[in-house]
């Protein structure tokens, strides 16, 4: 199978089988994924209620396989949440993977935050109290609503150089720019707290019929942080509705993914079609695609994807 036949697809397959059958050792630059959390979440087919030890063993198997396919200087971003009843699950997973990876960074994905003016001081941009983002409010007198999830950044040796300013944020106080050499671009390190709200949707059933997606922007930040120039292939073993595929298309990098649920793959493919429909020629080698209708009518999605990506067979 050539790379253009293999890449930029979501395979309807168990991810362990998929990685073993389709991916060579050290083929992948970046893994961004969110596995089932074993919190009894209602997926279309997957049973998210395994005995804990069985679940952790399985996650470890997946982790081992990810290590095999990951380049030595690759990055593995594992997004995982938890519940108030089971706050340890995310940490238990990280602890299992500790046997195989170095935890290079712990990133906190913040879904919603409240900032009070009185705590901010003299920041002209903050004019009053603000509360932004979306979260599921908890109905309890002992638990707080959970507004964050983890993104564990695992690497093989803990020494992967990152492109921090690719996701840098502008300095508020521009006088810092003169003071520090690294501030040359007017940007500073974003740090490990990332506020990424879910997109506002009107109908969950129609627009996001999946109980546990992550925002496309989360994936974009991970890939850019690893370094866009040295990312040839992004893997998501648990593709869900295809957020990793959409982010990869936006950034012009190849992806490969696995998902056991056919219904989710269908929706992911529709999202990809819409994304390609929106794509505009940004570089000389990129294809401009007029509309989703055109994709449906004339050529298959695979045709369009392989035209969108001009893959050199010498990628590796
Ligand atoms: C947390 S969701 C991922 C959602 C995805 N990040 C998104 O934004 O849409 C986990 C997904 O893993 C899928 N899944 C569960 N077991 C799997 C397996 N063995 N191989 C591949 N996919 C699996 C589930 O069907 C579910 O869609």
UniProtKB/TrEMBL annotation:
The chemistry this enzyme catalyses reads: a 2'-deoxycytidine in DNA + S-adenosyl-L-methionine = an N(4)-methyl-2'-deoxycytidine in DNA + S-adenosyl-L-homocysteine + H(+)
Q: What's in the keyword line of the UniProt record?
A: DNA-binding, Methyltransferase, Restriction system, S-adenosyl-L-methionine, Transferase
InterPro entries linked to this entry: DNA_methylase_N4/N6, MeTrfase_CN4_CS, RM_Methyltransferase, SAM-dependent_MTases_sf
Looking at the record's lineage, which domain of life comes first?
Archaea
GO annotation terms (biological process): DNA restriction-modification system; methylation
Residues in domain DNA methylase N-4/N-6? Answer: 28-269
Recorded GO molecular functions are: DNA binding; N-methyltransferase activity; site-specific DNA-methyltransferase (cytosine-N4-specific) activity
Return the GO cellular component terms, semicolon-separated.
cytoplasm
Q: Name one Pfam family in it.
A: N6_N4_Mtase
PROSITE patterns the UniProt entry points to: N4_MTASE
EC number assigned by the record: 2.1.1.113
Alphabetical list of PANTHER family matching this protein: RNA METHYLASE-RELATED, TRNA (GUANINE(10)-N2)-METHYLTRANSFERASE HOMOLOG
Similarity comment: family membership: Belongs to the N(4)/N(6)-methyltransferase family. N(4) subfamily.
Name recorded for this polypeptide: Type II methyltransferase
Q: Which organism is it from?
A: Thermococcus paralvinellae
């Amino acid at each position: 199978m050539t790379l253009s036949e293999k890449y930029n697809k979501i395979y309807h397959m168990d991810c362990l089988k998929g990685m073993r059958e389709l991916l060579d050792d050290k083929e992948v630059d970046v893994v961004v994924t969110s596995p089932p959390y074993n919190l009894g979440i209602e997926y279309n087919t997957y049973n998210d209620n395994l005995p804990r030890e069985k679940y952790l063993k399985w996650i470890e198997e997946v982790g081992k396989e990810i290590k095999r396919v990951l380049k030595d200087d690759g990055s593995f971003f594992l997004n995982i949440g938890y519940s108030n009843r089971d706050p340890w699950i995310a940490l238990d997973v990280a602890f299992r993977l500790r046997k195989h990876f170095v935890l290079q960074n712990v990133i906190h994905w913040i879904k919603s935050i409240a900032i009070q003016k009185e705590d901010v001081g003299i920041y002209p941009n903050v004019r009053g109290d603000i509360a932004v983002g979306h979260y599921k409010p908890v109905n309890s007198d002992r638990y707080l609503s959970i507004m964050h999830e983890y993104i564990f950044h695992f690497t093989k040796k803990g020494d992967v150089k990152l492109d921090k300013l690719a996701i840098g944020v502008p300095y508020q106080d521009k006088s810092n720019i003169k003071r520090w050499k690294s501030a040359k671009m007017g940007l500073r390190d974003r740090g490990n707290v990332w506020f990424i709200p879910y997109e506002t949707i009107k109908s969950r059933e129609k627009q996001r019929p999946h109980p546990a997606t992550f925002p496309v922007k989360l994936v974009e930040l991970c890939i850019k942080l690893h370094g866009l120039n040295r990312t040839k292939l992004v893997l998501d073993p648990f593709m869900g509705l295809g957020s990793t595929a959409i982010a990869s298309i936006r950034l012009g990098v190849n992806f490969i993914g696995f998902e056991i649920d056919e219904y989710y793959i269908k929706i992911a493919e529709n999202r990809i079609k819409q994304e390609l429909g929106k794509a505009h020629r940004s570089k000389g080698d990129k294809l401009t695609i007029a509309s989703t209708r055109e994709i449906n009518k004339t050529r298959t999605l695979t045709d369009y994807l392989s035209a969108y990506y001009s893959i050199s067979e010498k990628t590796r």
